[in-house]
Amino acid sequence: QVPFVESGGGLVQPGGSLRLSCAVSGSMFHIYNMAWFRGVPGKEPELVAAIATGGPITYADSVKDRFTISRDNAKSTAYLQMNSLNVEDTGTYYCNIVAWGNWHTFRSWGQGTQVTVSS
């Protein structure tokens, strides 16, 4: 069973917006801390944003005030609203279940969704 299904990526011009979705399998989504990571070739995926079960949220400095993470427990889905995109945001975006604070991931990565910011 595929643990995560990420979607919503695409090609967008600088300054544009995208909304990513992460559908999570199973019935325990409501107890998971969820996070979005960005992967680029040759580097480990880096944390972009995370949302805890109880609501605390954290963002990487590079995306603060531009990205918004949210979740819908009824749909077992996490979202990442990405505004004011720039070329440095380009990468493959993955979601995962994480331990709050150290961002240890608990499941295998899904296929991710590609975001390309280019003029």
How is the topology of this model organized?
Layout: E1 4-7, E2 10-12, E3 18-24, E4 34-39, E5 46-51, E6 57-59, E7 67-72, E8 77-82, E9 91-97, E10 113-117
Parallel strand pairs: 2-10
Antiparallel strand pairs: 1-3, 3-8, 4-5, 4-9, 5-6, 7-8, 9-10
Tell me the helix content.
under 10%
How many strands, what sense, and barrel or not for the largest sheet? 6 strands, mixed
In total, the number of strands is: 10
- Strand residue content: 35-45%
Shape: globular
Class by SSE composition: mainly beta
The side-by-side strand order for the widest beta sheet comes to: 2-10-9-4-5-6
The average pLDDT score comes to 95
Straight-line N-to-C gap: 37 Å
In DSSP terms (H or I, runs of 4 or more residues), the helix count works out at 0
The low-confidence runs, each spanning 5 or more residues with pLDDT under 50, are none
- Radius of gyration over alpha carbons? 13 Å
How do the SSEs run, as a string of H and E?
EEEEEEEEEE
